[in-house]
């Protein structure tokens, strides 16, 4: 629907998701629920392999929670829908790659949404902050995720001060993968998406499940679960045609043809 706050565009195995809610792409409860439905459908569609998440316009990726909607009655602890805030942060079994193409300001819940992606490409004018501290609230998802993505002392400073930082600093600390000119952002995101879409989807699924499973595990415990085939995605991969195809293609010195089964 043209009036939907979430626009989608599909090209082959790639889904582009645009949060387009003028003026700032802030997320209210209804928008969050729509985003959750979009990402759930992406997760469950066997013909889709990669998603790109970006914001409409040139100024905002997403500033997070819609405070105007909150003032009108949206509850902070309301029903965000499947996947939690923004539809992605708590999406269970999301075993497909997500690319965030950050086209502008990403702060508060918008930054939390951004770091729910696997690969982050930022426009050179993008800026970032976790300003919740200034309004007496906690950036809960960022408090969990940020110290795992960048050095602990840097994450704590950003959480405790709420200061703004730019794209080069975000790249310096490893918060984003790349910084590109704004007019090249979507071109670069699509190049990356096409590269991933041409790759082995069952391997991607196994990687993502292994990473999640190992996050709070001892090394040997995590390895045991992998080798004993206790992880569904790993088990599926080892029994797949794609696993044999990879070996055959290597032996025959040709590009593999991945079927996702």
Describe it.
- The chain is an alpha/beta fold.
- Helix content is 41%, strand content 16%.
- The protein has 11 helices and 10 strands.
- The chain has helices at residues 29-44, 67-71, 109-114, 140-149, 152-161, 167-172, 185-197, 201-214, 219-227, 232-238, 241-252, and strands spanning 6-11, 14-19, 50-55, 60-62, 98-102, 105-107, 119-123, 127-129, 165-166, 178-180.
- The strands form 2 sheets. It has a 6-stranded mixed beta sheet, with helices on both faces.
- Helix 1 (29-44) links the parallel strand 2 (14-19) and strand 3.
- Helix 4 (140-149) packs antiparallel against helix 5 (152-161).
- The chain is globular.
- The two termini are 33 Å apart.
- The relative contact order is 0.11.
- The model has no long low-confidence stretch (mean pLDDT 93).
């Amino acid at each position: 629907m043209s009036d939907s706050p979430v626009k989608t565009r599909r090209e082959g195995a790639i889904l582009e998701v645009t949060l387009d809610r003028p003026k700032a792409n802030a997320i209210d409860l209804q928008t969050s629920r729509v985003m959750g439905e979009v990402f759930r459908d992406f997760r469950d569609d066997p013909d889709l392999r990669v998603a790109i998440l970006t914001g409409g316009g040139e100024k905002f990726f997403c500033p997070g929670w819609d405070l105007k909607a909150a003032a009108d009655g949206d509850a902070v602890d309301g029903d965000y829908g499947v996947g939690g805030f923004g539809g992605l942060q708590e999406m269970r079994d999301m075993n497909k790659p997500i690319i965030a193409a950050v086209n502008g300001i990403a702060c508060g819940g918008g930054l939390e949404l951004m770091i729910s992606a696997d690969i982050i490409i930022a426009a050179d004018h993008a800026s970032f902050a976790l300003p919740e501290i200034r309004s007496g609230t906690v950036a809960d998802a960022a408090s969990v995720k940020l110290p795992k993505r960048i050095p602990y002392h840097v994450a704590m400073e950003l959480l405790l001060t709420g200061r703004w930082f730019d794209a080069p600093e975000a790249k310096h600390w490893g918060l984003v993968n790349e910084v590109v000119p704004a007019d090249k952002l979507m071109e670069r995101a699509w190049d990356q998406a096409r590269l991933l879409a041409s790759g082995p989807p069952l391997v991607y699924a196994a990687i993502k499940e292994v990473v999640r499973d190992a996050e709070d595990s001892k090394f040997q415990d995590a390895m045991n679960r992998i080798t004993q085939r206790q992880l569904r995605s790993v088990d599926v991969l080892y029994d797949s045609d794609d696993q044999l195809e990879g070996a055959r293609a290597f032996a025959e010195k040709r590009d593999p043809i991945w079927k996702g089964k």
